[in-house]
Amino acid sequence: MAQKDNIILIGMPGAGKSTLGIVLAKIMNYDFMDADLVIQNQCDKTLQKLIDACGPEGFIEVENQILSDIQASKSIIATGGSAVYSDEAMRHLAEIGTVVYLQISYDELVSRLHDLQERGVVLKGGIGMSLRELYDERKPLYEQYAEITIDVNDLSITAAARKVADALK
């Protein structure tokens, strides 16, 4: 049985999972793993090229497989925003760590995100899917899997990382 000594960050694209994760890893003396980069390295393609090649459902299958195989210890793991579409992967991540949802409001999301296409964001509803639809679709999934929810609206990355670290004590 794997030790449950990792911190798994989930949340919308732009919530700060990767950036905050690096700062949190320094605060807690943990390693840092960006799941999106693991996927890119294993597939030798950018996320957007993978989504273009496989389609949203195919990408979710690839992401599910890779996330389900992650083995780590004392690591901050920043997942892609679409990780919550994969129940198998989320169950595995919850077994090896504490799942922390970095919650941001829709208005904050709009101010942080500029181009979804460049970020390699999975739009299950297709290219025409609006940011609002994406937010409304994913929010209940983040809430379902979260063990700890941290509101990071209007916080600097460092302040948000400290808030997460304090919540984990």
Automatic annotation (TrEMBL):
Protein name as annotated: Shikimate kinase
Entry GO terms, CC: cytosol
Superkingdom as given in the UniProt entry: Bacteria
Source organism: Enteroscipio rubneri
Chain residues that bind substrate: 36, 81, 138
EC number: 2.7.1.71
Entry binding sites for ATP: 14-19, 119
Cofactor: Mg(2+)
Function of the molecule: Catalyzes the specific phosphorylation of the 3-hydroxyl group of shikimic acid using ATP as a cosubstrate.
Gene Ontology MF: a single term: shikimate kinase activity
Cellular localization per UniProt: Cytoplasm
Entry note: cofactor: Binds 1 Mg(2+) ion per subunit.
One Gene Ontology biological process: aromatic amino acid family biosynthetic process
Assembly and binders: Monomer.
Gene name in the database record: aroK
Stored InterPro entries: P-loop_NTPase, Shikimate/glucono_kinase, Shikimate_kinase/TSH1
Keyword tags: Amino-acid biosynthesis, Aromatic amino acid biosynthesis, ATP-binding, Cytoplasm, Kinase, Magnesium, Metal-binding, Nucleotide-binding, Transferase
HAMAP family to which the protein is assigned, alphabetical: Shikimate_kinase
Catalysed reactions, as listed in the record: shikimate + ATP = 3-phosphoshikimate + ADP + H(+)
Binding site for Mg(2+): 18
One Pfam family matching this protein: SKI
Pathway: Metabolic intermediate biosynthesis; chorismate biosynthesis; chorismate from D-erythrose 4-phosphate and phosphoenolpyruvate: step 5/7
